[in-house]
Task: structure prediction
Amino acid sequence: MFRELTIGQYYPGDSIIHRLDPRVKLMGALLFIVSVFLASNIFSILVVTAFLIAIIVLCKVPLSFMLKGLRSIVLLLVIAGIFNLFLTPGTVLFQLGFLHITDVGIKNCIFMIIRMTYLIVGTSVMTLTTTPNALTAGLEKSLGFLKKIRIPVHEIAMMMSIALRFIPILVEETDKIMKAQMARGADFESGGVFKRAKSMVPILVPLFVSAFRRANDLALAMEARCYNGGDGRTKMKPLKYNQSDKNAYALEIGFVALTIIANILYNRYVSGLFANMLGV
Amino acid sequence: MSIILDKVSHVYSPGNAYETTALSNVSLKIEDNEFLGIIGHTGSGKSTLIQHMNGLLKPSSGTIYYNGKDTSKKDFPRKELRSKVGMVFQYPEHQLFEPTVFEDVCFGPKNLGLSKEEVDDRVYEALKLVEFPEELISASPFDLSGGQKRRAAIAGVLAMKPDILILDEPTAGLDPKGRDEILGMIDKMHKKTKNTVVLVSHSMEDIARFVDRIIVMNHGKIEYDDTPKGVFNNYKELEQMGLRAPEITYLMNDMLRYGFDVSSDVTTIEEAKKEILKLYGIN
Result:
């Protein structure tokens, strides 16, 4: 039942996107987020859409697999959409009791849903195509400058990669414990909220016990191999940029620039045009 | 109380990069009062197979019949199936969670909705069956030794009084003494209560010593389904699958090669002893 969890999961493959340096993908995700929020009209949204489609095609992850991750946020999208639709002031188009729909409300609602969907899909391309280890290695290197102000970057990155590494292990463990308790007649599906919460105890107690046991074992194993933090530690596979990474950086910057240009063009010509047409 | 698997296949994560076929077209009938052994290398589909037997996993295709009833039917009492087919997972002590051993063993029978007296009766009976030391019944399961934890966990399943008991490597991680005790206890119980036992194990010696029939799994298929002697006669093929025959079988085959007149299909030390004594004319 936990195999369904796809948000942020790595999808093995060997596409151009998979092979990029994790730092490029991190920066790409960041710039993508910036662009999504910069995009405030149909022109720039089209630019972002084109970029997103190109990335999705290039990364060769089945679209169905990617969209599965969206299922978990559908409710959030619907609620946020409804709030935007009904609670935005502006020119009233429909009125139903105390509820009213305005022109700005419709626009906000559509933009909000597009933005949220793009954000989730866009950032999940990063996690789908990058192993958790590569991702933390990229983060560690990109944020290395923070070491100068005494932030333990390596330690935080190590904690992150261990945490990420343990997610599938604990998921599997949960699955196993659940099955073992189900074999003893445990019932997790029926009953009210209170009964269901109580039925989690036979899973949570063994899960915590095993998580602590594993943490202990791992600490011992790390100590046995003389781990003592990041000082003087070298990497087996140091991150190195090659030509395609540099090209990707250029593309990313070009993409943000294009979004901004689209915005300017729209503001200068199209929105004025509409205003003229409406005689404002 | 028979279980029939008819052309059962199981595919994990169908339709994406993680897709793996764990079982393909497995057909199998488990008879009453049988002691069945399942062997196979890691990843051969043993665990997937046994999880189908009590409805924890549903087959991707194929049908499973319990007492002649199709278990995939909507009105099939799945909870009853789980109580009648007891499953002891690998490292079952990892499922212990109550503050005391007694309460933990209560968990199963309580879920069956039995009266308090009945639950208490069954708990004491189960703990006695696994020869759990009486003075530790109110101890915390987390304070016990490995072997005692294992006994407590097995008792937790036995207390549900299953007709069919499935054990997935019940001796993994135990010392030789603990191993012999656990297996001896299972065998004794099988002889006494005439229940059906399915034992998954990596120890060919254990399998040869206790079971009536062996299923050999390889790449999600049943490779052999025969008596221990019948299966271990194919020890060369077993080696190809990452398995072995019991050491004693190799010894007897070597003796045969060196000209001693012994039978080649010996699988237990008891039999070997008889064979060797026979050479010297002692019966």
User: Anything to note?
Assistant: Residues 157-231 of chain A form one domain. Chain A has a mean pLDDT of 85. Chain A touches chain B through 24 residues (CB under 8 Å).
